[in-house]
């Protein structure tokens, strides 16, 4: 594996320069649509075609093939899954779904669990790497993951698919979309179930999983300059699992999740299009229930937000983005006692995008958040992008500050909470270079980065009587990210991503000073290739290699690196009917992303898709 990894790294390094996506528009950098040559930050895009072609079930598995990302999953599909960007904590990743912030207010660190987010109705994913709290506020320390379902299309159409495979797994989904007059809408549903495998390594009892998801969008164009957006998403999941006690042990434990996501917004354009405004109310609720041999317990987290955003562009060379947000996160807990807490956060922000001359775009901004518990936090950010040739070459750099408010659990838990906690703070720097060659047939990108984090929240188990959360840890992450997309002929697409991340604990005098942060492999490589034959057959493969890491902060429990190969194919039978299939972990690699938890060996699946 090491030799293969070195060869791939050398191949990437020898390429003239490195790029991530051909998508010319991104929305995550400022929360509005922007051309790529206006963005100085590193953003990767996974589009609808890639999602369909790869055939991945889990959103986390797709994201893990992009630069700078590490993920860990405790259990098989459906198990708790965290995403780390550029070596940050999984709690320091901000996640949006159809414009709604979905980090869980009832979680220990407000992290979003990707275990129950499947690809069923997802059509686009953007991953912004680097601190960006000016735009998004708390938690955007490592980066932002923006997940989107399909937009309503013209006319009427839809698709449906079902596949079956290893462990009696069934994966079915359907979408419809249409428009008529002032109304446009889309809706979809997905169902996934599997007998699964034992969550505990070495176990024999299968732990099954079922996931039901549904989404809907409705847009009403009330006037040329006025529209109404309604969006909703729902997930229900049932998981059988094995209890964690030192190491996972076989048991009959299970959990249930219900997740509700809602968005209602109004869009208004004034002054001949120079001022666009958006006002919205968003709602997120996450109910988690656990059924254990030790007793039943559960958490409920809710976040109600009001958002106002304005974009004023008096001339083509300048625009101002400004806004106000109010959110009210709260959580409740039952079992082993009961409790709950609430907070209020008010935020204002402003950013300016200026193009002083052709090819140069400068962005800078400031944000202030006022938290009902710890007071205020002010963050700054700036980035630049210069293209001398209309976007074929982009030289970019960015500076971003991030902060993460202590979670309600960390502040108010009756056993371990600490109301005196202060927010975690970060400073992030990167510089990068993108190049497009031969009319876009070769896209290359390379980025170097560094992030310093202070006042990171740490659980000190020594503080009597039960331990307590304190602001103690300092960390530093630095590294290099590279990506390439090649399309030498129309039928062949090759993509590759590599990242080196050196993430260490820098807490002076701390017991883990100088140690690598847990579950952050230094090296990771992903290479994908897909070819479409003249008679319609599409065949492809993805190779993902991840280096060694440690499971714990003390670096005493190692996790071996691994290499996974997946192959896939699809064949159209008619213009509207297609058959497809894949084999995951082709070489039956034994590996773990969390110590003691099982992962799938070689597994095969096949299905049929219809479009209308």
Report on the structure:
Strand 1 (25-26) and strand 2 (34-35) form a beta hairpin. The protein contains 5 helices and 36 strands. Mean pLDDT is 92; it is low at 1-22. The chain has a 22-stranded antiparallel beta barrel. The protein has a 5-stranded mixed beta sheet with strand order 3-8-9-6-7. By secondary structure, the chain is mostly beta strands. The longest helix has 13 residues, at 2-14. 6% of the residues lie in helices and 59% in strands.
What is the secondary structure topology, with strand pairs?
Elements lengths: L1 H13 L10 E2 L7 E2 L6 E5 L1 H7 L4 H5 L5 E6 L5 E6 L7 E5 L2 E2 L20 E8 L3 H4 L6 E7 L6 E10 L3 E12 L2 E15 L9 E17 L2 E15 L2 E3 L1 E3 L4 E17 L4 E18 L2 E21 L2 E17 L3 E5 L2 E10 L5 E12 L3 E12 L6 E12 L3 H5 L11 E14 L4 E19 L7 E19 L5 E14 L17 E10 L5 E9 L2 E2 L7 E2 L2 E11 L4 E8 L18 E9 L1
Parallel strand pairs: 6-9
Antiparallel strand pairs: 1-2, 3-8, 4-5, 6-7, 8-9, 10-11, 10-36, 11-12, 12-13, 13-14, 14-17, 15-16, 17-18, 18-19, 19-20, 20-21, 20-22, 22-23, 23-24, 24-25, 25-26, 26-27, 27-28, 28-29, 29-30, 30-31, 31-34, 32-33, 34-35, 35-36
How many strands, what sense, and barrel or not for the largest sheet? 22 strands, antiparallel, barrel
CATH topology: Maltoporin, Chain A
The assigned CATH architecture is Beta Barrel
Low-confidence stretches: 1-22
Computed CA radius of gyration, to the nearest angstrom: 23 Å
**How many DSSP-defined strands?**
36
**Total number of helical segments?**
5
- Main structural class: mainly beta
The termini sit apart by: 44 Å
Task: Name the CATH superfamily assignment.
Answer: TonB-dependent receptor, beta-barrel domain
């Amino acid at each position: 594996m090491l030799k293969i990894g070195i060869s791939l790294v050398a191949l990437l390094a020898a390429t003239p320069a490195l790029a991530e996506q051909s998508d010319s528009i991104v929305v995550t950098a400022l929360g509005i649509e922007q051309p790529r040559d206006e963005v100085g930050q590193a953003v990767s895009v996974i589009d609808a075609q890639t999602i369909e072609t790869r055939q991945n079930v889990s959103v986390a598995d797709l994201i893990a093939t992009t630069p700078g990302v590490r993920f860990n999953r405790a259990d098989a599909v459906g198990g708790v899954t965290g995403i780390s960007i550029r070596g940050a904590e999984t709690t320091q990743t901000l996640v949006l779904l159809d414009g709604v912030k979905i980090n869980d207010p009832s979680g220990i660190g407000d992290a979003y669990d990707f275990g129950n987010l499947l690809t069923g109705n997802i059509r686009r994913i953007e991953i912004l790497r680097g601190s960006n709290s000016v735009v998004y506020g708390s938690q955007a320390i490592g980066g932002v993951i923006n997940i989107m379902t399909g937009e309503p299309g013209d006319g009427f159409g839809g698709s449906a698919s079902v596949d079956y495979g290893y462990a009696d797994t069934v994966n079915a989904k359907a979408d419809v979309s249409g428009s008529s007059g002032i109304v446009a809408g889309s809706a979809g549903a997905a169902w996934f179930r599997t007998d699964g495998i034992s969550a505990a390594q070495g176990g024999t009892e299968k732990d099954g999983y079922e996931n039901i998801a549904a989404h809907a969008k409705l847009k009403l164009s009330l006037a040329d300059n006025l529209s109404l957006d309604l969006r909703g998403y729902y997930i229900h999941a049932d998981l059988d699992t094995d209890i964690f006690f030192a190491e996972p042990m076989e048991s009959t434990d299970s959990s249930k999740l219900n997740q509700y996501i809602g968005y209602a917004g109004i869009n208004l354009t004034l002054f001949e299009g120079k001022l666009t405004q958006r006002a919205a109310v968003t709602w997120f609720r996450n109910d988690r229930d656990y059924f254990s041999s030790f007793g039943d317990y559960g958490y409920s987290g809710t976040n109600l937000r009001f958002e106002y955003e304005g974009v004023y562009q008096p001339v083509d060379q300048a625009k101002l983005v400004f806004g106000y947000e109010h959110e009210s996160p709260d959580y409740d807990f039952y079992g082993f006692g009961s409790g709950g807490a609430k907070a209020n956060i008010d935020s204002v922000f402003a950013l300016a995008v200026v193009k002083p001359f052709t090819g140069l775009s400068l962005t800078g901004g400031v944000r202030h958040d006022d938290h009902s518990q710890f007071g205020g936090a002010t963050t700054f950010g700036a980035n630049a992008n210069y293209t001398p040739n209309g976007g074929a070459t982009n030289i970019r750099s960015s500076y971003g500050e991030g902060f993460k408010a202590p979670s309600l659990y960390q502040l108010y838990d009756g056993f371990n909470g600490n109301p005196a906690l202060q927010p975690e703070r970060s400073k992030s720097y990167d510089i990068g270079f993108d190049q497009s060659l031969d009319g876009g047939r070769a896209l290359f990108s390379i980025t170097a980065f560094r992030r310093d984090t202070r006042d990171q929240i740490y659980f000190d188990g020594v503080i009597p009587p039960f331990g307590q959360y304190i602001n103690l840890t300092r960390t530093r992450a630095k590294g290099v990210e590279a990506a390439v997309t090649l399309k030498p002929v129309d039928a062949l697409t090759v993509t590759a991503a590599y990242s080196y991340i050196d993430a260490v604990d820098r807490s002076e005098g701390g017991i883990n000073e100088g140690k690598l942060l847990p579950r952050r492999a230094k090296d990771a490589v992903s290479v994908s290739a897909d070819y479409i034959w003249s008679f319609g057959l599409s065949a492809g493969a993805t190779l993902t290699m991840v280096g060694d890491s440690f499971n714990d902060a003390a670096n005493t429990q190692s996790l071996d690196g691994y290499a996974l190969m997946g192959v896939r194919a699809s064949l159209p039978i008619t213009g509207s009917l297609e058959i497809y299939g894949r084999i995951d972990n082709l070489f039956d690699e034994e590996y773990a992303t969390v110590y003691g938890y099982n992962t799938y060996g070689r597994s095969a699946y096949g299905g049929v898709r219809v479009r209308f």
